[in-house]
Amino acid sequence: MFAETIEIGSRMKLNNQIEIIRELTAQLQKNYEDSFYSNFEYEISSLYATKQKQTQAEIIENQHRFDSAVESLFKPKIIHPWGILGEYIYKTTKTAKNYHDVQKSKKRFSIENLRMEQIIDQISQKKQLNSLDEVVMQIVEVPNIQAELIYLPADNQADQRVFIPAVS
Questions:
Q1: Contact assessment for residue 66 and residue 102, using Cβ atoms and an 8 Å cutoff
Q2: Residue 60: alpha-carbon gap to chain centroid
Q3: H or E stretch including 163?
Q4: Closest C-alpha among 137, 147, 151, 125 to residue 29
Q5: Is residue 71 within 8 Å of residue 53, measured between CB atoms?
Q6: Residue in 95, 89, 93 with CA at minimum distance from that of residue 72
Q7: Could you report the per-residue pLDDT of 93-140, keeping only the tens digit for each?
Q8: Which residues contact 92 (CB under 8 A, 6 or more apart)?
Q9: Shortest CA distance to 148 belongs to which of 136, 138, 160, 161?
Q10: Which of 13, 32, 77, 119 is deepest in the core (most CB within 10 A)?
């Protein structure tokens, strides 16, 4: 976009370039509307949405394992040589691990949400500071501004052309 703005500025200094300037400003506006800079909230949200779907699926899977571990905790089957007490300790440990996995997945999901919000906030603050939006909108309006061309002499005895907006 910066190269396009420079080219528009260069074309403004040349005579009979208004059609090219109109095309370049239309191209600049389209590129700006399609840019990451303009659509960063949507782009970041879509990137994080994929990661969050995976985390949600992990939460559901871990929750299912935890629920089945809780159910099996109260249905004793003596499969261990240690008897009922050994089986109860084994199942309790397995249930505690599954519970820990569920909590860990939920925490990861909330951290991902927080990171996404922080990134969007930081980019929004940077975007407000650099005011590229205003610059692009002003450049896009250039072909619609009525202007007079005034020649001012330069040091090298050549004419320098300058656009001056007409006052309505």
A1: yes
A2: 27
A3: strand 159-165
A4: 137
A5: no
A6: 95
A7: 888 999 999 999 999 999 999 998 998 898 888 887 877 777 777 777
A8: 73
A9: 161
A10: 32
| Geometric angle at alpha carbon 43, from 38 and 44, rounded to 5° | 115
CB 37 within 8 A of CB 136: no
Rounded to an integer, what distance in angstroms lies between the CA atom of residue 131 and that of residue 136?
A: 9
Dihedral angle over CA of 114, 119, 123, 124, nearest 10:
-10
Of 47, 92, 85, 89, residue with least CA distance to 66: 92
CA distance 63 to 56: 10
Question: Are the CB atoms for 52 and 45 separated by under 8 Å?
Answer: no
Cβ count near 18 (within 10 Å): 12
CB 138 within 8 A of CB 63: no
The helix/strand count (H/E) of the chain reads as: 5, 2
Give 38's contacts (C-beta < 8 A, 6+ positions apart): 32
Does this model's pTM top 0.85? no
